[in-house]
Amino acid sequence: MASCADKNKLIAKAWVIDLNAGKAEAENKEKSVLDKIGDIGKGLAENLVLFEFKPDGTFRAGGKMIGADAGKWKIEGNQVKILDGEGKEVSAMNIVKLTEEQLVLSKEGEEKKIYLKPKK
Known about the structure:
Elements: H1 4-11, E1 14-17, H2 23-26, H3 33-48, E2 50-53, E3 58-62, E4 69-76, E5 79-83, E6 89-98, E7 103-106, E8 113-118
Antiparallel strand pairs: 1-2, 1-8, 2-3, 3-4, 4-5, 5-6, 6-7, 7-8
């Protein structure tokens, strides 16, 4: 298991939704969202949503068309926690996978996962 310092270095970048990564899970279910929106929609969705974990511990979420929310982030154990400007926890997500090329998050008690890839 990687240390928190390693996780901090790996996560500290801008990430975008990776719809193709979750496709394998969705293939066994009914027609997935990916099938419904097509390739053009996938590209648009992947570029609209941004999660930026800055090395200084600040966090930004948003995209080109929507405003960004500012806050802070920290890793505790196997969770990334999003904090408001006053340091109060707003959200916590389990880190399912974290590498240079992929970040997979899930909410406690939920089956679905959020697949992210580095913004190019």
